[in-house]
Structures are given as C-alpha cells and as structure tokens.
Amino acid sequence: MIFARFLLAGAMAIAGSPLLADPLPSWNDTDPKAALLTFVESVTDPASPEYVTPADRVAVFDNDGTLWAEQPVYFQFLYAMERIGELAESDPSILTSDTLKAAAEGNLEAALSGGEAALLEIVNVSHSGLSVDEFQDNVAGWLDTARHPVTGRPYRQMTYQPMLELLSYLRDEEFETYIVSGGGIHFVRAFAEEVYGIPPENVIGSAGKTRYAVIDDVPTILKDAGLAFIDDKEGKPVGIDTHIGKRPILVAGNSDGDFAMLEWATAGKGARLGVIVHHTDAAREWAYDRNSHVGQLARGLDEAPARGWLVVDMAQDWKSVWPGR
Amino acid sequence: MIFARFLLAGAMAIAGSPLLADPLPSWNDTDPKAALLTFVESVTDPASPEYVTPADRVAVFDNDGTLWAEQPVYFQFLYAMERIGELAESDPSILTSDTLKAAAEGNLEAALSGGEAALLEIVNVSHSGLSVDEFQDNVAGWLDTARHPVTGRPYRQMTYQPMLELLSYLRDEEFETYIVSGGGIHFVRAFAEEVYGIPPENVIGSAGKTRYAVIDDVPTILKDAGLAFIDDKEGKPVGIDTHIGKRPILVAGNSDGDFAMLEWATAGKGARLGVIVHHTDAAREWAYDRNSHVGQLARGLDEAPARGWLVVDMAQDWKSVWPGR
C-alpha cells in the first residue's frame, strides 16, 4: 500500500514536471513563443552567461491592449461615463456641460468630441470626491455587472489568455511582474490582483491627486480632481524609476505609448527583451495599429526589427485569445 | 559516519531554531520588546484571531531618526553641502548666492539661515543636472568616505542596531518592510539595500522632478530641479497609498512628521502597531523631542498613550544603539 502510493506520487511528480509541462499552451509554436522561452531560460539558468539574479528579474506590462482589450475605447472611460450617469441620477445638477451630458447619456462620440479637456472633465467628475477605498469598491462592483459593448463578455474576461500564461510563467521563474499603465493606478488595482495575480504594490499608473484627511474621525485617502502623474510615453520610464528603482529586463506593450519604456529597458546591460503585441486579429479581437485612435502603433512597428523587439502577431501567434474557452 | 552527520545536523537545527533564538538581542527586556514580540506572534500565528496573511504584513519605517540618526542635521543635507563644495571646485561660478557660498564652505548655520527657500536652493543645485544612476553612485561614494561630524563614524554605521534587528525579525516573519522617508527617494535607495536589506522598490521618499531623455543615444532618467513630491506629514499616507496601495499594519517613526501615517495605519481594522522612537539618550545618541529643529516630536508624545502607540525610550529600552559594538 505504502509502496503503491510512493509509485503514484513519483508518476505524478514526473507528469507535473516543469521540464515537460508547456508553460505557454495558448501560444502557437511560432517564433515569439520560442523567443520568450529562450529568453527566460537564458536569464534563469545559473550556468548561462546571461544569468540574472531573481532580485533583478523585473518584468513590466502595459495594461490596455497588452493584457486586456482596449477597443472600442479604454474600458476605464466606459466606466467613467457610466459612473457619471449613475451620479446624475441622484443629482442631475452635476451635468454642467455638454460633455458631461453626453457622458451621462452614454454617447461616446459626443463625449469624446471635446478632446483632451473633455476627457479630463469626465475623469475629474467620475474619479474624485470619494475615498480610494470607495472608488475601488465602485470599480469592482461595475466589473461585476458591466458587459463589453461588442463582445458582451464581462470585462474581467476581456483579458488575453496567452498573456495571463506569460505572467504566470514569469512568476514561476522568479520574475517580479508589474503593470505600467497609462490608465489610473487605483482603477487598475481594483482588479489586477484577482485577474492578473499582480498585487497593488506592483501596479504603476496615471494618478489623480490624492489627499490625506481625517473625516468624522476616520483617517482617509481622498481622491481629488486634477492629475498628479501621467504614466504614458516618457512618463512610463519615470514611473518605473519612481516605483521600482530598477530597470526592467522584460517589457511588453502594444502602442507607441510604450515606446519609451521599451527603449529604456532594452538599452540596459545584459539580456533584455522587448515585446510588442500587434493587433492583427479582426476575427477574434481587433486589427489596428498606425491609424487607431486608441493604441496607436507606428514607430514601434517601424523600429522593432532593428531594435530586436519581438512583435507578436495576434492572429498568427496566439492559439486562443480569451480566457475560459 | 552518516549517522553522526545526521545527529550533528539535528543538533544544529535545534541551536538555530527560531523558538530558542532571541530575534531582538539589542533590546532590553522592557515593555516595548515584549509588545513587539507579542504583536508579531499574534499576526503570524494561524490559530490567532488576529492572524494576518503574509501578503498584508506590511511594515513601514521612517528613516531619519528612526533607522539612523538625524543630528546635528539630516545627513542628506550634509551630503548636499559637500556636493556643492565639490561642484564649486571645478566651477566656482555656480555659487550665485550667499546660501550656496555658505553651503560650499560647510557653514551649516549660515546655509540654513535662509529657511525653506535656502534649503530648496541647496537641494536643487546639489541634486539635479545628472542622471539617477550618476547621483546614486555619487551618494554611495560619499558614504564610503564621509564621517559624521560628531561621532566620527561612517554614516552607514550611524544606524540603530535594535532597529536593524527589528527589520530582520519582521522579514523572517514574512513581513514586507518599507522605508517611508521625508528624505529623497534616490538618496535613500543609494544605501537602503546594503544597510537595511530594503530593496529600491520598497523605498518611498520625497522626490525631485525627473525626466526621461535619450542623450547621445543613451536612454537616461535625469534629475531636474524642483520638487515632484514631499513625503512628509500628510504626504506619508499619500506616498504609501501611491506606492503600496495597502494600509500598513506596523508603522515606526520618531517625529510628528510621522504622525499622519501612524494615525492612518493604526486606524485600520484588526491588529495594528504604532511605534515611536523617543530620543532620550544624550549619553549614547542624542536627547531631543518637543523643541528640536529636526525630528520635532510633540503631538506624538501627547497622544501616544491614548492611541496605544508604543513609545520606545532609547536610553531605557535599547541595550546597545550602534551596530558593531
């Protein structure tokens, strides 16, 4: 009996061996998968000349368009519009402009027609005047019920299964995984741990102003109107330096908003890997790059070959796109 | 032979057992040591009603006056003055004000006489116009050779041995330890890992403006003049929220600059511990509180008993102060 259990345990250990299991089952056997596996092996094998100590295995990921979808517009913006509608139900007097009225009506085109000033107005009204805890509860509640306007899927299932596998694989190989998002730091933290396994301290993002105050004897972090930090383009390396203080060895993005952090990270000494997710899959996801109003990708595509960055062709390189299929 | 080695290994395991070793040997057997041990045991014992999962065992420490000394003035300011002197040797034209001349001469009183504006001028000139990497190399080089003006000790040995033991003890008990300093984030990162075992990503501090730029084809993070964030007083809970996104369960400070983070952290649900290091030891360190120009502590002392915060009396509660004695 004991002997039989030993045998069984041995067989299970072999079946579960990392040498045999495929850590990236949703990736096709094309070049990007091989390049990812080769890179990770080269920096984790103590006998490799490119070996990197676990403390320096820092991998950063853009969120919108890299870990989850970003069409027809950033999901955080859809949340902001719905929140304005919700707030206006109890107090219609908050709708002080055409932009806010359009947002409350869910009229995306009209809401966005005011450009950056309109965007900031919508974010200010929807993302301030409450505590960080209240805000994150509100976002989590929205994610529980809201559905994507095109696919009908809950947003938590608009993530990319191949990227979820890459995150897990890297953590299994003692990488520390971070999100470096142009989206809001508190917004992303509301789901990053549950959805990506990335805890709050590993989320870097754009930030509205916050303030500490004791309200009715309760110490609170309050979200105010106005921006404190924009974690996009040249802001991404700055955000990484501020939060991590180390130069990542692996960076994944999908747009020219990620160019600076790709450039900075891959210019470091030793083995480095830059990854660009190229949206080529109109059938299963979306196809866009140079002329897209979100996730515009031009310089990254032009310069990736010379810089040795990996361009992942979603249609060709991913066996499946969405989780749970 | 094999049997003997097994016996030896067993004996060594017992001698090194955490059940028998004192994790805080430089603390006297007074109340604070007992309170620290009791708190840590209560949040790490899975059978305890106050058990906290390792992911939420966040402990934050002020630096100046809590982990290392801060008299006669913050060490970063002494560095800034010496750096201005060094810069002026190759280019005396940088000394465009009486403040900067006083700093270059090492005249502390005159340099500080201009108040906050003078302080900012000294920090701007000494902490900008170079890359983060260059700055941190410069700080590390200074720490290699500079000596404290009163004790003659290298600054890396102006840390408090009992606090080094507390940091190690907490990490052994699966706490994540952070620094939350009013001092500069890049300054503190230049020595925090070596001296405290706290890696760059766990250092939060005040920050000068930084900027990403490609200079002579080299992607670089540059330090500019001006302040981006002041991690002091009400800024400390904000800094913790931005960097960690979790409310700490243990906070240690020594001045009213730490009051807000003590208040915020200890107001959270479940077991919490606030710790104030009270400088009472004129013989071995310094004795100061309410009327000090650095590390002023008044409200914290007044309110600690009612708030249940631990006040560590350095003279009474610490067996030794400095490391390596």
UniProtKB/TrEMBL annotation, chains A, B:
Alphabetical UniProt keywords: Hydrolase, Signal
Top-level taxon of origin: Bacteria
Signal sequence, renumbered to the chain: 1-21
The keyword Hydrolase is annotated on this UniProt entry: yes
GO MF annotation, one: hydrolase activity
CDD domains per UniProt: HAD_like
Keyword tRNA-binding in annotation: no
UniProt name for this protein: HAD family hydrolase
Natural source organism: Paracoccus benzoatiresistens
